[in-house]
């Protein structure tokens, strides 16, 4: 189990990690995700020991390891560039850490072959990294990590150098490996699809702080704030400025752009009056009959994917994406009546805090 | 290849022919001096003008090594330039690495400042340089003489700053270091830190990181830096001329120069043989380093 307790990092006067608390349980696949520059790599390198920790505690398996040198932490890391040594064969690359420890060559060979078996690298052991494909290099880099039998494996954007087909394949492969090795993994990416598909736990980072941590579906359905709500999910959640007025004791009335008007159930009267932001995912908007519509808007873009179609409606500065099953006959310029699934609506305060989650009524 | 109309391909053929013809002319023009050297050095009666030898002989080469001090000159040149090259490779490897990785504010000013050493003609600085080295040399002599007495001169032949190997080696290395530092700094800039960090995570000590990771990765760059240092120092004539006076310390270019200056008749056979011997190490060095050069200048390390 790895635990970060109020961890901070400064570059000069600039604070890039601003008090992070994260726990990753044994055997868990945790994904740190966030936009570029939010501090994911820095946080990962602090765990690895490649960057110092300015304050807070880093605890691995009950032991504070802030000041333990990188190679004594029992942590392995797979680098984004793979960092395979071009002058060594695949076998030498995988066995490098053992040869540094002066393990007997026979024993190194045995362990390398064991690892190569797991990673299906047997035929490639005598090649140089230069003669491997991207996916194969990736596997060698993983082999170099797992031969150390680490209690924690770190990945920094390991799939970003691969083309999209290979990326899908490696995602599955990484999950298989994770199951087989029952290893604890911390995985950094800026791609929320990678995070959603692989993670047991997602940690969303924003400007050096944890925006929210939890299982993927919890973050998807019950985001803590507008940042997480819009970051998780593709296409993004629609956010619309609205004005709320109380309507009796059990509901509020929302008025928004494009003549939007709808009523939300609010049994415990938790929603304040005034301006707020309505969050609704594309799949929770429906094209309906005109008399059932909450609002109507002009279609700007139609994206047909076959099994589903995305309509972008409204103006350029306030686009709204609507997901429709199957194909549609709409064309750009058509006016469509739309309704939101009121049970699936999120309400955020003007500064982005969650006021009401979906299905929370 | 795409189908081109016959007229166009004929045009291209003619253009290619012209290009090859002019390139051949240029290469012949460039090669003639070397050709002349080679032929004349085996000519029993070599002349100033290119001619086919009437008698082929090794006598010229034999004379270089028997009548003249050719072997000594060759050794001196190889030793001095070789030592300077090794020194440059070590210093530019370490220094280039440091300059590439540091974030110090003086990094760029420093890099441009050292280029000045290279840009300023050494001829212009030869007087202060000589003065400086002479002072050092006198100090060293004053220090050594009480200890070693009569043997001092023999020691100073190796460690002296004037008329000694050490001084010339240091000065030659200094002249070559700026460019080599630039080459190595640029080379290390293109070498991701990930390599070292991966080795660090694998538990490699500083020495192991240098020996097993950095040096093998930097080999192409080091070869380039060493090659430039060797070729440039090998061709240097002025510094040995000024700094060396003892006959037993003379280098090849100096021997060549003095043989040319002899008052009696000029011995073209001897001169060309000497010149050819002088050429060989440069060509060999280029042959060795070519493999690495191609790598260095075609985008750093692959893999
Ligand atoms: N050595 C450094 N000196 C100063 N600032 C740095 C240094 N390294 C990183 N930073 C800053 O720290 C912040 C976090 O950087 P980090 O590399 O962790 O981002 P990231 O989330 O990994 O981004 P990306 O997705 O682009 O890799 C950035 O704003 C970056 O500019
Ligand atoms: Mg990063």
UniProtKB/TrEMBL annotation, chain A:
It is found in: Cell inner membrane. GO terms for molecular function: ABC-type maltose transporter activity; ATP binding; ATP hydrolysis activity. Keywords: ATP-binding, Nucleotide-binding, Transport. SMART domains: AAA (SM00382). GO terms for cellular component: ATP-binding cassette (ABC) transporter complex, substrate-binding subunit-containing; maltose transport complex. Residues 2-232 form the ABC transporter domain. It is a peripheral membrane protein. Belongs to the ABC transporter superfamily. This is ABC transporter ATP-binding protein. It comes from Pleomorphomonas diazotrophica.
Automatic annotation (TrEMBL), chain B:
Residues 74-289 form the ABC transmembrane type-1 domain. It comes from the Bacteria. GO terms for cellular component: plasma membrane. InterPro entries: BP-dep_ABC_trans_perm (IPR050901), MetI-like (IPR000515), MetI-like_sf (IPR035906). Pfam families: BPD_transp_1. The chain crosses the membrane at residues 20-42, 73-98, 110-130, 165-184, 213-231, 268-289. Keywords: Cell membrane, Membrane, Transmembrane, Transmembrane helix, Transport. The keyword Membrane applies. GO terms for biological process: transmembrane transport. It is a multi-pass membrane protein. CDD domains: TM_PBP2. It is found in: Cell membrane. PANTHER family: INNER MEMBRANE ABC TRANSPORTER PERMEASE PROTEIN YCJP, MALTOSE TRANSPORT SYSTEM PERMEASE-RELATED. Belongs to the binding-protein-dependent transport system permease family. This is Carbohydrate ABC transporter permease.
